Amino acid sequence: MNLETYLELLAKFEKSKDIQAYTAYLLPKLKVVHDTVKHNLQDSNVMSKSSHDRKSQKPLFELGAKVLLHNPTTKKVSVQSWRSGEKVLLL
Fold first, then answer.
1. Does residue 83 carry a pLDDT above 50?
2. Same domain, 41 and 70
């Protein structure tokens, strides 16, 4: 919605003597705005996912390769939270 539409709705609200009539007038317009925003968000999510999928890469290691393994059970991230020499079993 643009500024002119907002000003038009505001003017009609100020002139309206019956709030229920104005609400009945406004609800369909708000539904249209809601549906438009929802559709735009879905389109944006699809575009973001496709962009991420294009930029993502496959892992650079192979089965049996030695890697560092992070242990998330430690409270502080430090040298002790990583174990070296672990082998890749699944990709």
1. yes
2. no
The CB-based long-range contact list for 84-88 (8 Å cut-off, 24+ gap) reads 88/61, 88/62, 88/63, 88/64
- Whole-angstrom Cα distance, residue 4 to residue 21? 21
- Residues 32 and 73 occupy one common structural domain: no
pTM above 0.70, yes or no: no
What DSSP designation does 67 have? E
Residue 32: which domain range?
Answer: 3-55
| Residues 59, 91 contacting (CB under 8 angstroms) | yes
* Alpha helix stretches (DSSP H) within the chain: 3-15, 19-55
